[in-house]
Design goal:
two-stranded antiparallel sheet; 6-stranded mixed β-sheet; alpha/beta; 2 domains; 8 strands
Length: 281
């Protein structure tokens, strides 16, 4: 069974379970290697459901949420569909994770570094970078306000368009996550990277788990349905736009012909507008 790691059910199965948290540690170390002083050696997986503080406010369900031994709070989200809101969604999730750390009476100084990681199966930013990292910086001097906010975006679609360095562990992980045909990566990556090989073996276990496989298939169907409805709506919008554009053009032509005093029957025949529509003009 050719399973997609970017399906959120599959991603949680491989990276979001305590018995397989070694996969998450390995992935995070590859992503954060340039931003942390030492590799993550251990972490605790936390509840992914963040309830709103007040009735009526929006809660959220995270894909994977973890607390490292350095007290860094980390959220990883995988997104297959481009709904054009990922930056605001990520900031919202980050804020929930950040504010959830404090209980009544605690000091703001107790707030720890919070990292949001978004793995996207589409291109989003206009630059050519596969991995974009954002902080709070002063507008002109670029001085960092604080290190508690860190948001990562990794765009899998971009690695399909470039030559990937096989010695770069992050690029190997992203190829694993973004492969459309994961079986083709066996010889190329799995046999050379024991960590990814183990993650792939864990992914294969999903096929043998009846409940997990059912959830995986439901998620795949929901994704296909969304794409289909989105494409249909887009086609209808294009058709409607062309129709409106054609009618507007016809009205403009009719207005010019009417100003010249031409016969209504001739104008109607030329533009396709009825005499009643010409009367409105």
């Amino acid at each position: 069974m050719n399973l997609r790691p970017m399906n959120d059910v599959a991603f949680q199965f491989v990276f979001g379970k305590n018995e397989r948290k070694y996969n998450l540690i390995n992935l995070l170390n590859a992503i954060l290697s340039k931003d942390i002083n030492a590799p993550i050696e251990d972490l605790t997986l936390l509840e992914t459901e963040l309830t709103p503080e007040l009735i009526g406010l929006k809660g959220c369900r995270l894909d994977v949420r973890a607390l490292t031994s350095e007290d860094h709070h980390i959220n990883i989200e995988v997104q297959i569909l481009n709904k054009r809101n990922i930056e605001k969604r990520s900031l919202y999730y980050w804020s929930k994770l950040f504010t959830a750390q404090l209980e009544k009476g605690q000091d703001y100084r107790e707030l720890s570094k919070t990292i949001s990681i978004n793995i996207l199966d589409f291109s989003y930013f206009s630059n050519e970078k596969v991995h974009n990292v954002f902080h709070l910086l002063e507008k002109e001097t670029f001085e960092r306000l604080t290190d508690v906010l860190e948001i990562h975006f990794l765009e899998l679609n971009k690695i399909r368009q470039i030559s990937v360095n096989p010695d770069d562990s992050l690029m190997r992980w992203l190829r694993f996550l973004g492969s459309k045909d994961i079986l083709r990566l066996r010889e190329e990556i799995f046999m050379k990277d024991k960590e990814i090989k183990r993650a792939y073996a864990d992914l294969e276990k999903l096929a043998a788990d009846k409940n997990a496989r059912r959830l995986y298939e439901l998620r795949e169907k929901a994704t296909r349905d969304w794409i289909s409805s989105h494409n249909s709506a887009r086609e209808e919008g294009i058709k409607e736009g062309l129709k409106v554009g054609h009618e507007e053009k016809a009205r403009q032509i009719a207005q010019r012909l009417l100003s010249k005093g031409l016969d209504l029957d001739l104008i109607s025949e030329t533009t396709g507008l009825s005499k009643e529509e010409l009367g409105e003009i």
